C-alpha cells in the first residue's frame, strides 16, 4: 500500500470510510537551474538573515509569525495550529452530491488518490465508489491539508476514488471583466459547419501517452551540446501560411483531411459510460 500523506475518513450520512490520501501526480522530470554570478559562474545562495542582529539564522531558530500591523508579529506555534482544528482537519465530510458536468474545470486544482485504510474500509469504499460511478455525481466538501482548508471534490476514476482540491468561489475571477464576443457573434452558419467538420477530422479517443514534453527534450539536447563544446544552432520555426479570410482558412484546413474515422465512430454503437466532469452537458 502506498504511503499516505494524510489520514482521516470520508463521511457521508452516518457512513464512515477510513482513508488515506496519496498524491496522484508523479514528480515531473524537468531541468533545474541555479542562479550564478555572471562574472565567475559561482553559484548564488540564499541565506536567512535576522534584520535586527544582521546574522545568519539556522533553521532550528526559526518560527512562524503573523504580521498583524506594520513590523508587528505574533508567533504561531504548532500547538496553536492544533488548537485551530476544525472537523475538516480529520475528515472529509461530503456535504453535497452534484452532477459531475455542473462544475467548471477551472475550480479544480490538485488530485489525490484515495485508498481505504484497513479491512473495515474496503466494503464502504467500494460501495461509495460504484454508487458515484453509476450516478455520474461527485461529492463536494471541505478538507484541511497543509494548514489550509480546501474545498474538494470526490469522484470515481476506474477502481479508485480521487479527491481533488478546489478553489472557492471567491477565488475565481469573473469573466465579466474580460472583453469577450457574445454567443454566435459575427460568424456565418456555413463557417460553423466547416469548423465542426474540421474538429471532427481532428477528433479521436483520448490517449494521454500521445502527448510528450518536447520542449524539455530539445532543451536537454541544447545543454548537452554546450557541455560538449558544440555549436548550438536554433531550429527554424515552422512557417504557417497566412490566410486572412476565415472561410478560406477553414476550407484549406479541410482539404485532404480524411473524415472516415470520425464518420465510422459516429455510426458504430457506443457503450454508455458514467458522465465525467470533463464532458460538459450540452
Briefly, what is this?
The protein has 282 residues and is an alpha+beta fold. The chain is built from six helices and 14 strands. Helix 3 packs parallel to helix 5.
Keywords:
282 residues, Ku70, Chain: A, Domain 2, two-stranded antiparallel sheet, 6 helices, extended
Explain this structure.
- With 282 residues, the chain is an alpha+beta fold.
- Among the domains are: 110 residues, Beta Barrel (Ku70, Chain: A, Domain 2), CATH 2.40.290; 41 residues, no CATH class.
- Helices cover 23% and strands 27% of the residues.
- It contains 6 helices and 14 strands.
- The strands form 4 sheets. Strands 9-1-2-11-14-13-12-10 form an 8-stranded mixed sheet.
- The longest helix has 14 residues.
- The radius of gyration is 27 Å and the shape is extended.
- The protein starts with 5 loop residues before the first strand and ends in a 15-residue tail after the last helix.
- The model has no long low-confidence stretch (mean pLDDT 85).
Radius of gyration: 27 Å
Structural class: alpha+beta
Uncertain stretches of 5 or more adjacent residues: none
Q: What is the third-level CATH name, the topology of the domain at 6-27 and 84-171?
A: Ku70, Chain: A, Domain 2
User: Total number of β-strand segments?
Assistant: 14
N→C terminal distance: 40 Å
User: How would a textbook summarize the main sheet?
Assistant: 8 strands, mixed
Order of helices and strands: EEEEEEEEHEEEHEEEHHHH
Tell me the β content. Answer: 25-35%
Query: What is the tally of helical segments?
Result: 6
Which overall shape is indicated by the principal axes computed on the Cα atoms?
extended
Biggest sheet strand order reads 9-1-2-11-14-13-12-10
Query: Any guess at the CATH architecture of the domain at 6-27 and 84-171?
Result: Beta Barrel
Q: Average pLDDT, to the nearest integer?
A: 85
CATH class label of the domain at 6-27 and 84-171: Mainly Beta
Indicate the percent of residues in helices. Answer: 10-25%
Amino acid at each position: 500500500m502506498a504511503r499516505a500523506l494524510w489520514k482521516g475518513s470520508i463521511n457521508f450520512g452516518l457512513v464512515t470510510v477510513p482513508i488515506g490520501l496519496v498524491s496522484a501526480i508523479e514528480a515531473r522530470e524537468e531541468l533545474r537551474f541555479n542562479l550564478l554570478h555572471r562574472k565567475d559562474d559561482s553559484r548564488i545562495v540564499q541565506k536567512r538573515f535576522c534584520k535586527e542582529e544582521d546574522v545568519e539564522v539556522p533553521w532550528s531558530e526559526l518560527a512562524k509569525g503573523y504580521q498583524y500591523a506594520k513590523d508587528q508579529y505574533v508567533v504561531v506555534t504548532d500547538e496553536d495550529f492544533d488548537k485551530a482544528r476544525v472537523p475538516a482537519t480529520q475528515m472529509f465530510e461530503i456535504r453535497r452530491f452534484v452532477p459531475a458536468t455542473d462544475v467548471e474545470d477551472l475550480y479544480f486544482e490538485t488530485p489525490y488518490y484515495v485508498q481505504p485504510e484497513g479491512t473495515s474500509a474496503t466494503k464502504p469504499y467500494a460501495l461509495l465508489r460504484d454508487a458515484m460511478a453509476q450516478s455520474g455525481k461527485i461529492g463536494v466538501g471541505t478538507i484541511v491539508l497543509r494548514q489550509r482548508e480546501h474545498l474538494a471534490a470526490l469522484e470515481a476514476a476506474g477502481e479508485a476514488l480521487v479527491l481533488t482540491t478546489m478553489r472557492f468561489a471567491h477565488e475565481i475571477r469573473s469573466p465579466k471583466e474580460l472583453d469577450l464576443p457574445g454567443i454566435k457573434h459575427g460568424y456565418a452558419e456555413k463557417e460553423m459547419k466547416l469548423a465542426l467538420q474540421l474538429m471532427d477530422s481532428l477528433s479521436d479517443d483520448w490517449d494521454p501517452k500521445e502527448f510528450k514534453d518536447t520542449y524539455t527534450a530539445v532543451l536537454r539536447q541544447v545543454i548537452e551540446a554546450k557541455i560538449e563544446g558544440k555549436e548550438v544552432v536554433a531550429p527554424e520555426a515552422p512557417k504557417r501560411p497566412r490566410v486572412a479570410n476565415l472561410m478560406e482558412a477553414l476550407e484549406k484546413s479541410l482539404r485532404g483531411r480524411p473524415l472516415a474515422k470520425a464518420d465510422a465512430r459516429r455510426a458504430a454503437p457506443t457503450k454508455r459510460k458514467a458522465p465525467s466532469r470533463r464532458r460538459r452537458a450540452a
